[in-house]
Amino acid sequence: MPTAVFDLDKVLLGGDASTLFLHGLLRRAPARALPLLVASPVLLTGAAFPQTRPLGARLMMWLAVGDARAVDAVAAAYREALTGKPEAAVADAMACVRAHERSGDAVVVATGCEETLARGFLTAVGLGHLEVVGSQATVPVRRAMGGSKVRMLIDRGHPPPWVAVYSDSASDLPLFAGTPRPVLVNAGTRAARRVERTLGRRPETLTWR
To answer: pTM (2 decimals)?
Structure first.
């Protein structure tokens, strides 16, 4: 089946997944602020290094909802956040996903975000059926970034070529190289020029809200 690949942060989600989750969680359950505050030195250290971010995110979710794999509990926090910040669910992106599905394409979300956190957001916005290829808090950690995203997509049965790849960053050049339709979303001219220099062709650019 033809497959379209979407990034999450700043493409489907207008902002940062962890920040939006915490915003909704603390609106929904203010008492959870205490364990998160006590653990903040560890959480901030984990967030500071790419290879430990998935482990930090898993610990954050465990402290926040009591179960690091509880997609429904994570989704509830996102729904709370979205009541005050509905624009964080990017309407143009949601419409694009559904257009691909109507055309018969599979849609996969490939993101550096920890997988359960990503699944929770997608569940909150009615896209919980989508497959997610995200960073995994395993030992060793699997970080879905750049070339590793490509390898993880292949491992999940979604090898290139992809019909389209949507990302906000030139860091996804390895994915853009695997599609005839690289799409930069809400990115600047510098990112577009970098993609063009590497691929030898200009990417499509879109502004989504």
So the answer is: 0.92
